[in-house]
Amino acid sequence: MTGDVRIKRIYDPPAREDGRRILITRYWPRGVPKSAVDEYVPALAPSRELVRAFKHGGLSWEEFSRRFLEEMRSEEAERALSRLAGLARETTVTLLCTCADESRCHRSLVRDLVFAAGSAPQAGGRGSTGKRR
What we know:
133 residues; alpha/beta; four-stranded parallel beta sheet; 4 strands; globular
């Protein structure tokens, strides 16, 4: 990949180095104008049920991660990941979400999946989900 995949909170100010800003939340965040992002991809957000279980049901981060990665095996998510991996080959992509703690946010998992999709053979699957950095 010649570009880069970054992660950032949607409420942080935009920066030129963000490149293409991609919002990956299930619902549009309050107070955020549509002009703050270049693209909205809800297919790369966790299901409402999964978020609720994590935030209010005591689901561990490890279990959230496992279930989220299962959700990302859908055809729609696979297509979105592949498309973003192609975009990231050309330019910087910044994945945006509302979570304050990026280490416990799905955007860090999506970043890893985009990297994996970029290293997978075109005709095959996504490959492993190892970190790039």
